[in-house]
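INFO batch 0412 | record 1 of 1 | parsing
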Amino acid sequence: MPRYFDIGSTVLIVVGYGILAEAEDRPTAYELKRMIDSRGEGTESRSAVVVTDMWVLNQEMADLFPAIAVGGPGVNAFTAQIYEELPVAVARDQRLFVQMNQDAGKRVALWGMDQSATREAVELFIKDGLLDRLLDLVWHRDR
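INFO prediction complete | emitting C-alpha cells
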C-alpha cells in the first residue's frame, strides 16, 4: 500500500543538498522527524518526511506543506529563501536561531553558525515547546 502524504499536515523537514548538509544536518533532521512522528498519535498524515532543499525548490506542491528548514542559509537554499521573512523566536549569542511565526505560520528555520549550533537550535525548538506550538497550528490541535 502506498504511503499517503497530506499536504496540510505532513511536515517536511528540509536539509541542504550537499555533502556538508547531508553529513551534518540530515542526522539531526531524522531525530526531529522521530519527535514529530511520536506526537502524531499513530495518524499516518500526522508525520514528517525529510527532503532536500532542491526538492522543495523544484516542486510547486511543496509550498502547500508545513516545513521546517534545518541548517543555515549558507548550506540550505530553503533556509536562504525564508529566513529573512520569519520572526526570530529564540537567538543565542548570534550563534543559533529559531525562527517562526508562533501564531500563524507553517514555516520554521532552525540553524546555527556551525553544526553544533544547528543541533542546539533544534533541541531548543523541541525543549521550549515551539515544536508542539507548530504542531498545534498545523494539526489544528487544541491545548
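INFO post-check: Residues 25 and 71 are 6 Å apart (CA to CA).
INFO record closed
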